[in-house]
Design goal:
Subcellular location: Cell inner membrane; Cell membrane
InterPro entries: Efflux_drug-R_Bcr/CmlA (IPR004812), MFS (IPR011701), MFS_dom (IPR020846), MFS_Efflux_Transporters (IPR050189), MFS_trans_sf (IPR036259), Sugar_transporter_CS (IPR005829)
Number of domains: 2
Structural class: mainly alpha
Order of helices and strands: HHHHHHHHHHHHHHHH
Protein name: Bcr/CflA family efflux transporter
GO biological process, one term: xenobiotic detoxification by transmembrane export across the plasma membrane
CATH architecture of the largest domain: Up-down Bundle
CATH superfamily of the largest domain: MFS general substrate transporter like domains
Helix content: over 70%
Number of helices: 16
Organism: Endozoicomonas elysicola
Length: 404
Amino acid sequence: MRHLNPDKYPAFVLIILTLFAVVGPVSIDIFTPSLPAITEYFGTTSAIAQWSVGLFMLGFSLSMLIVGPLADRLGRKKTLIMGYSLYLVATGITLLTDSIHVFIAARFAQAVFGCFGTAVARMMARDYYRDQMEVKMLAYIGGCLTIAPMAAPIAGGYLQEYAGWQYSFYAMAAMAVIAMIALMLLPEKKQEKTADTATHTSVIAGYKAVLTDSRYLRFTIAAGAAFAGAFVFVAGGSFVLIGQLGISPAIYGYLFAVAIASYLLSASIGPKLTASMSRNQSTLMAGTLLVVGAMVSLGSGLLTDGQSITGYVAGIAIYELGLGLFMPLCQARATEHMKENMGTAAGLIFFIEMLLATLISALISFLPEAGTLSLSAITLVAVAISGFCLMKTNDVAEATPQAA
């Protein structure tokens, strides 16, 4: 089959690479408005069903750890073919099983294999282009990755309201099939052979060095805990707002998009806002927004016995504004002192963040049904953990708000 020339048809290549990149992220956000319906369908509890969200994110982070070596060893196209094939198998299982536990396991597999494209799309952009064109392609892909999380829950809300939860999974499968067909249009660039000097011993030593670095761990755990405070809304928001408070899945999709938009706004304009500040001052400002957002959500819940949707979402929007500043700052400060093992450290940051988000959001299952109060309480706990971690770091002790 004749392949597209990336230099002659950059727009077509961009569309294809963007499709590869968004399959995984869309698979989590399009699904969230359907969580209450899936819980009812499988006759399970919200505490069990929400693991399909937490383990998906954990699988996503695991995918980022393994896809790089696979793509270098097997090639970009073979890695994607394998990933999307297994993703389709997992999607089929979610639609055919009558066991919630098998469903959750299939969601984990969806994440591991479907998210290959998020990393490989960027690798292929670097394979095809150099200099300014490479930067331009990566920027466009990154831009589409910011739009997808806002559009997916809105689409998922309408699919749930007018068709049923299964149709979100049909949409996921369709995206994967189209991605596999589009993949055949792209050439495979041969990778330069490099001497593989990394032994198992050196890899293990690298992980040990990173995981015993107290500064790295404090900033990474602080970022992960802060992210978990927002992830509570992802994992449990639909159960509370749809299941307990009675809003429609379509409206929930829009509310979810508001939270995502707040994060993206902050992340995009944050560097300009903090350009004249020290990192300590920027961390303080971001942390303050986290605390204010958590307190607004909790306060509105206390005043209305957990019934205030507007107050809760307003608090989450403020929290997300802080998170868009806080996470990049913590990620940068976690590694700014390192001279070695930067790749290992960067990969582990995302994995640890997702692991903490999964574990902290699981606290929802231990709380009574109390409307938005349950979600807000866990968010405040997450902020307290984040603040405690930074208080233990000497050079930022005075830059961290007292969250607890």
